[in-house]
């Protein structure tokens, strides 16, 4: 599909525009200090990051709910580094993590440049599986909310990417057809395959250089989107 028919671009937020891992690490550093958790931060993050991704996969597949995700990813991480932390403290950490996370707002390199490049040419939107209240905080505090005409979260729709319903809802909210739309996101299953399934074109933001099928459009830096758009 040629990009000359594209009028609307949908972005994922976490791991695509908003540098989740960097912001998350800074948040953990703060809440561990607040609660006097004597943990080696790099060691914790090394186990936490893959566990968190696994929990999000379960959440995406409706196998766990939001409280289970928030508690389980921390509990599992502490268990894996053989650190005993009470459920009460884990729940406090979980709450503080969500509250403090939007205070750190590093975006990926080139985020503002590419948004400024795209905004005069296309209508821009967000589709995210992240929690509604947290995602709006991230958009506001990182100063990118004004770039987007609509924001669709999985909690608004009741389903998560790659479920077709969230894409249909986002398209309806934006008032655009799938054939005139493009999705950009880091997750092959949720963002790329989910979009293609409902007729949106898609580009994978392949920040980690994962080996992808040759027919998947991909960039490793946001500025490379200019070659497609």
TrEMBL record:
GO terms for molecular function: 5'-nucleotidase activity. It comes from the Bacteria. Pfam families: Hydrolase. InterPro entries: HAD-like_sf (IPR036412), HAD-SF_hydro_IA (IPR006439), HAD-SF_hydro_IA_YjjG/PynA (IPR011951), HAD_sf (IPR023214), PGP-like_dom2 (IPR023198), Pyrimidine_5'-ntase_YjjG (IPR052550). This is Noncanonical pyrimidine nucleotidase, YjjG family.
């Amino acid at each position: 599909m040629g990009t000359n028919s594209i009028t609307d671009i949908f972005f994922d937020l976490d791991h695509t525009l908003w540098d989740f891992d960097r912001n998350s690490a800074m948040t953990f550093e703060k809440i561990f200090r607040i609660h006097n958790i004597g943990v080696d931060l790099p060691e914790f993050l090394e186990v936490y990051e893959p566990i968190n991704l696994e929990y999000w996969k379960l959440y995406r597949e409706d196998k766990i709910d939001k409280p289970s995700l928030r508690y389980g990813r921390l509990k599992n991480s502490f268990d894996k580094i053989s650190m005993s932390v009470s459920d009460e403290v884990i729940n406090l950490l979980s709450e503080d993590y969500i509250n403090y996370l939007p205070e750190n707002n590093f975006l990926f390199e080139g985020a503002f440049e590419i948004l400024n490049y795209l905004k005069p040419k296309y209508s821009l939107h967000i589709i995210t599986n992240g929690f509604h209240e947290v995602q709006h905080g991230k958009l506001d505090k990182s100063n990118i909310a004004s770039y987007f005409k609509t924001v669709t979260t999985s909690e608004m729709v009741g389903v998560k990417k790659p479920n077709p319903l969230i894409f249909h809802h986002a398209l309806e909210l934006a008032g655009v057809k799938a054939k005139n739309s493009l999705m950009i996101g880091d997750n092959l299953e949720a963002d790329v395959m989910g979009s293609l399934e409902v007729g949106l074109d898609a580009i994978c933001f392949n920040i980690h250089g994962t080996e992808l099928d040759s027919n998947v459009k991909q960039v490793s830096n946001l500025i490379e989107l200019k070659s497609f758009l």
